[in-house]
Design goal:
Largest sheet: 5 strands, mixed
Radius of gyration: 19 Å
Helix content: under 10%
Structural class: mainly beta
Order of helices and strands: EEEEEEEEEEEEEEE
Strand order of the largest sheet: 3-2-5-6-15
Oligomer: single chain
Shape: elongated
Distance between the termini: 52 Å
Number of strands: 15
């Protein structure tokens, strides 16, 4: 039985990998961003990756009590991203826009519950295979949509996969697909999107 990997996604914004190109030299314009990360039940999450603009020098991992601190963040609007992989390979990501004008102490940043694809039910028909797909329910208050993608390789994301279904209701957790008998193995991912928030600080 193949394991179907969950990937959840909140809006991805501009990415910078190693350094922020417009980082100021004035130390008075560099600030501290700190906070804590919890799971959907409010429990502290350790070893969650927290990054700002995905910059190498603005990336930290949460401690055992779920806290993190990132130093020398420049003044302005940034994308704060939290990534966490569960033991069952479920993967959650949460992004928030952050306006930094001084040292920032964020309130609890709660991750969404992981949404998992169940083992598909396949019914053979005369010329097609009917595949019934189901997944677990999102309990996030800021739920936006599920997106179901399909691809012929496991390297699947929103840019490489074929979008085959969108559901905008949390309780809409099933989809039926039809594939020819000759079709090679398909890889499926369910993306669980939340509304992005802007954190205003002063």
């Amino acid at each position: 039985m193949k394991h179907l990997m969950l990937m959840t996604l909140v809006t991805i914004l501009s990415t910078y990998f190693f350094s922020c190109g417009n980082e100021p030299t004035d130390p008075n314009d560099l600030f501290e961003v700190k906070g804590n990360v919890t799971d959907h039940n409010g429990n502290a999450v350790s070893m969650a990756k927290v990054s700002i603009d995905q910059a190498f020098n603005w990336t930290e991992y949460t401690s055992e009590d779920g806290t993190y601190k990132i130093n020398d963040v420049s003044k302005g609007t940034h994308d704060l991203e939290v990534e966490y992989k569960y033991d069952d390979t479920s993967y959650v990501v949460r992004n928030e826009q952050l306006n930094v004008n001084s040292d920032v102490a964020l309130a609890e940043l709660r991750l969404p519950n992981p949404v998992n694809l169940e083992t598909p039910t396949i019914k053979q028909q005369l010329t097609l295979n009917q595949i019934q797909l189901c997944w677990s329910v999102s309990v996030a208050e800021d739920f936006r949509e599920y997106k179901l993608y399909k691809h012929n390789t496991s390297g699947l994301d929103e840019s490489t996969g074929t979008l085959i279904h969108v559901a905008t209701l949390p309780g809409d957790t099933s989809f039926t697909d039809f594939l020819p008998h000759s079709t090679t193995v398909s890889h499926l991912n369910i993306w669980h999107s939340l509304d992005n928030k802007i954190r205003e600080t002063s």
